Amino acid sequence: QGLAQAGGTNWRETFASGVPVSGAPQSGTLGYITGQALEESNVDLTMELVNLIKAQSNYQANAKTISTQSTIMQTTIQMT
Predict the structure, then answer these.
(1) pLDDT tens digits along 1-27
(2) What share of the chain in percent tops pLDDT 70?
(3) Phi and psi for 56 in degrees, rounded to 5?
(4) Residues contacting residue 41 through CB under 8 Å, at least 6 positions apart
(5) Could you tell me how far CA 49 lies from the centroid of its own chain?
(6) DSSP letter string over 41-67?
(7) Neighbours of 3 (CB within 10 A)
(8) What are the boundaries of the region Disordered (predicted)?
């Protein structure tokens, strides 16, 4: 947080982010690395699928609206 983009995917520190901390794992206040461990996902798959279904439904409704509008326009043009 507080990093400034330095072009592309490069970032640099700012006053807000503070000075970067580096060092060996388990030294000072640094954490540890666990070999052959799987990271647990922080994504709620159920909510993501619900959001996907909502987005798909909205997309279909918008497509139907555009199709209906096109049909109405064609009918109006043919009437004149």
Answers:
(1) 789 999 889 999 999 998 888 899 888
(2) 100
(3) -65, -40
(4) none
(5) 14
(6) P---HHHHHHHHHHHHHHHHHHHHHHH
(7) 13
(8) 1-22
And the tokens for 7? Answer: 């072009």
Residues facing 12 on adjacent strands = 4
Give the model's pLDDT for residue 46: 94
Written as one letter, the residue type at 3 is: L
Q: What is the dihedral of CA 50, 56, 61, 63, to 10 degrees?
A: 170
Scan for tokens 């699928």, then name that residue: 49
pTM over 0.90: no
Tokens representing residue 62 in the block:
């918008």
Cβ–Cβ under 8 Å, residues 12 and 6: yes
